[in-house]
Amino acid sequence: MKTSELIEAAKGEITATIGLELDSISSVRNDGDHWVIHADMLELRITPNTQDVLGVYEVLLDADANLLSYHRIGRHRRSQLEIERADG
């Protein structure tokens, strides 16, 4: 499966599983037997939208874009330049 096909397949899986609106995919890498995707999910909508709170989720998928696991690794406001990570 091409990377672009995997991302398209993963978008619906991520949204349905996490239950939040997908804002963007910020990274994708093949880690041998699975794919690692970082997805920015809209956690809290605030006006103006520059203050929206986005959660950054690390999502593991198999080669067929089936979700293996996910967890939030950070949160930030849309306007924030640097993201605070939960893991350090």
Low-pLDDT ranges? none
What percentage of amino acids are in beta strands? over 45%
- Beginning-to-end CA distance, first to last residue: 33 Å
- Count of helices? 1
Quote the average pLDDT.
89
Main sheet attributes: strand count, strand direction, barrel closure: 5 strands, antiparallel
Give the proportion of residues in helices.
Answer: 10-25%
Provide the spatial order of strands within the biggest beta sheet: 1-2-3-4-5
Report the radius of gyration as a whole number of Å: 13 Å
Outline type: elongated
SSE ordering: HEEEEE
- How many distinct beta strands? 5
Helix and strand content put the structural class at: alpha+beta
What does this structure look like?
With 88 residues, the protein is an alpha+beta fold. It is built from one helix and five strands. It has a five-stranded antiparallel beta sheet. A hairpin with an 8-residue loop joins strand 2 and strand 3.
